[in-house]
Amino acid sequence: MSEITKVALDAMGGDHAPHEIVKGAVNALREESSIHVFLVGREEEIQKELSAFDYDKSRIEIVNATEVIETAEPPVNAIRKKKDSSIVIGMKMVKDGQADAFVSAGSSGAILVGGQVIVGRIKGVERPPLAPLIPTEKGVSLLVDCGANVDARPSHLVQFAKMGSIYMEHILGVKNPTVGIVNIGAEEEKGNALVKETFPLLKEEKSINFIGSVEAREIPHGHSDVIVCEAFAGNIILKLFEGVGMTLINQIKKGMMNSLRTKIGALLVKPALKETLKTFDTAEHGGAPLLGLNGLVVKTHGSSKAKEIRNTLVQCVTFKNQRINEKIRESIQSD
Amino acid sequence: MSEITKVALDAMGGDHAPHEIVKGAVNALREESSIHVFLVGREEEIQKELSAFDYDKSRIEIVNATEVIETAEPPVNAIRKKKDSSIVIGMKMVKDGQADAFVSAGSSGAILVGGQVIVGRIKGVERPPLAPLIPTEKGVSLLVDCGANVDARPSHLVQFAKMGSIYMEHILGVKNPTVGIVNIGAEEEKGNALVKETFPLLKEEKSINFIGSVEAREIPHGHSDVIVCEAFAGNIILKLFEGVGMTLINQIKKGMMNSLRTKIGALLVKPALKETLKTFDTAEHGGAPLLGLNGLVVKTHGSSKAKEIRNTLVQCVTFKNQRINEKIRESIQSD
User: Under an 8 A CB cutoff, do B136 and A266 touch?
Assistant: First the structure.
């Protein structure tokens, strides 16, 4: 039996907090026996939500935090001033070893800043990237960095590739994962200054399976297991993935409600359509870890519901059991 | 009646040349009476294709060009060496005033280089951006720049916004078109160095209707009429738009072929689905103009078929009649 993974969960973060967050925690306990959850946030509110569920009381604890960091707050300031916020308290628990991981659907900015300032980087890691799994025709790809470090340097991207490869190999079980760099053409001489400088470095890097440039068009087809890019580009990729998918689905649904004929057709195809949409639902794949920290910090969508929280909590167990951070430490420090 | 628009059309460019290109030209004549087409390329091949059609022989001329620039060729070299290529010959016709516009589905690199080197920039224009229309829930948005100038500077982006606004107002008929800058957050202080520097410049620019940052997720919803970004980001947006759309549609189609029930449903919804897909088909909206040149150069998809060629040719007529280049000249030189 594996040891217990202790997760500090931000009960106050996201559009559906605390209800969906608490529900996700309860569901995670049911699915994964080796997890212990600290619900961090306003005790009374959390207690009220919890009282609606039947759960193993020895495996969920409430950690009181009276403040909440709002998404609109300037993150550096918020982390510094709101010492009693769920994000600061939860991250300190990771820093102090009381928790293995911190999970939050709250302010991205505060999570990124707090991850670096409170939890801290693994020695040798220059920039911790945010690395979500994105759905593809073949399964999933890991997108590093999707938003943590704008205007990154080539050496950062090389580390993203190494950390991403470890994640895909040991969390997703992909043997010798392929790595591609986002580019605007397939040839080595294409790209902006950053990509042109990074390309030869990735080519030389023996610990990864670099397969060259990936054009954005190829990403949804599952071009490579790890997709490396600077955060501005990565954020565009992630958000557009969600935006185009959602828009297209809405349009298709609307189109199907056009006439009696299409309405009948829609009824018949609905289950199949639902199945397809599920494959393209980012919530199925849990939150995005911030790689390279002394502990695990995971950001889930602001719109997270119980399912995404549950999936993310279960992911934390694999992260700990596979000793991802030790592998990252070895890989980065071997340079 | 408007005057005649003369278009030099690269008969050798793209995956389906010369057949679909020639067919597109013939169809454009039928739709638009004030157009005259020069088919530039290998005379014999073009003649053979043309002979299959019934058309007004006084409105299509063949201009012989014996060489073809392949997509894989380094563009600068190709433009310099292949003096008798369809791209070089066609662009020279624009330069010399024999044609108002040049349209090609061939090598993007060669078209971008040739546009600058042969056709030349309007005085005052720093970088000519490639500006395709992309489909949205509300209609279309103009994406400038989608791939011409990687690592652009703030002043370039301001010019993109001005030229894009003129295009949307006078080609698409959008009154006082809104302009957004692609960013990774809605607030002014978000973004990479380029966006942070460009944002206040756009805000100050009185000739445009700047409405702030646009997150990638909002683009398919039709956030703004003109979407300004650096070419690396723009290329990702364009390609991912196409990639995610295509993948999702393939998955949905596959899902619908799962069982007899879904197959019957698919038959019933097919026309509605087709209509929806048509809205999201970039070919419906013609090619991407390279804005700010002394003449018009339009790049169409490498996979262009007759429909896209026809739509693009018709677009050239509006471009000329609306005197877009004169308006760009006035706007840029008024600074």
Answer: no
Task: Measure the CA–CA gap between A142 and A220, rounded to whole angstroms.
Answer: 12
Contact A214, A136 (CB under 8 A): no
Residue of B71, B112, B228, B232 best to disrupt the A interface, most CBs of A under 10 A: B232
The two tokens of residue B263 are 């197959």
Using CA atoms, how far apart are residues B239 and B246, in angstroms rounded to an integer?
11
C-alpha A214/C-alpha A228 separation (Å) is 9
Q: How far apart are CA B178 and CA B165, in angstroms?
A: 8
Radius of gyration, alpha carbons of chain A: 20
Confidence of residue B219 (pLDDT cuts 50, 70, 90): very high
Tens digit of each residue's pLDDT (9 = 90 or more) over B260-280: 888 888 888 888 778 777 777
Report which of A258, A169, A269, A263 is spatially closest to residue A209, judged by C-alpha positions. A169
C-alpha angle B120-B153-B92 in degrees, rounded to nearest 5: 10
The owner of tokens 């409405």 is B211
CA distances from B261 to A136, B177, B267 (A): 26, 46, 10
Per-residue pLDDT tens over the stretch A65-108:
999 999 889 999 999 999 999 999 999 999 999 999 999 999 99
Transcribe B127-194 into DSSP letters.
-PPB--EEEETTEEEEEE-SSS-TT--HHHHHHHHHHHHHHHHHTS--SS-EEEEEESSSSTT-S-HH
Chain B interface includes A149 (CB < 8 A): no
Residues of B in contact with A150 (CB under 8 A): 184, 191-193
Q: Does B237 touch chain A (CB under 8 A)?
A: yes
- Please tell me whether the peptide bond between A129 and the residue prior to it is cis, using omega within 30 degrees of 0: no
A296-299 β-sheet, strand order: A60-64, A35-41, A5-10, A101-104, A296-299, A288-290
**Which residues, other chains included, contact A48 with Cβ-Cβ below 8 Å and sequence gap of 6+?**
none
Q: What is the pTM of this model?
A: 0.91
Extract long-range pairs of A96-100: CB within 8 Å, 24+ residues apart. Answer: A98/A6, A98/A8, A98/A38, A99/A6, A99/A7, A99/A8, A99/A38, A99/A295, A100/A5, A100/A6, A100/A7, A100/A295, A100/A296, A100/A316, A100/A320
ipTM of the complex: 0.89
Q: Which of A136, A137, A268 sits opposite B265 (nearest CB)?
A: A268
Which tokens belong to A282?
A: 């980012």
Cα–Cα distances (Å) from B329 to A317, B95, B235, in that order, read: 61, 17, 26
Kindly give, in sequence order, each residue whose CB lies less than 8 Å from that of residue A28, ignoring residues fewer than 6 positions away: A35, A37, A309, A310, A313, A314
**Residue pair B68/B37 in contact by the 8 Å Cβ criterion:** no
Question: How many residues are recorded in chain B?
Answer: 335
Separation between Cα atoms, residue A235 and residue A64, nearest integer Å: 33
